[in-house]
Amino acid sequence: MICKHIHNHLEKYDILTSFQHGFRKAHFCETQLLLTVDDLICSLDQKIQPDIAILDFSRAFDTVPHELLLGKLGHYGIRGPIHNWIRAFLNNRRMWVAVDGESSCIARVASGVPLGTILGPLLFLLFINDLPNVVSPGTTTRLFADDCLVYIERSGLAKTKLHCNEIYQR
Q1: Which of 54, 84, 110, 111 has its CA 20 to 30 A from that of 165?
Q2: 143 strand-pairing partners
Q3: pTM of the entire structure?
């Protein structure tokens, strides 16, 4: 119920970045791939070299700082009882490892979104939602859950980026 309520809020206010294609309705790995290939083909058609970096966030879901995430949730308008419920959901979590009948000591979980939950991936998306806004101007960001592709067109000449449709209409 909480996840659905948050999704409705995010859709109503168009909060999730269009560059995120993971864990979202009508956004798939294939949609990200099509957009990226289209961008790269346009660059090549214009004889512009795209510089590309593929980023893999190591243990991304495990390293989300709770207080920073909660601050972002408040910024996105997720406040009041739902915010308090999520705070309780994240805080005071414990974990242990069991292998072949032997268990480790119980340890406090100080960061991360719970894996294996419906809400965890959505909380992660909200945590990285502003990433496309903080990269260098002209850089395109494509996100699929915790995978990130960034690229920028490099040219020695001053240029105006044309939309692909404009190029094909010429």
Answers
A1: 54
A2: 20, 148
A3: 0.81
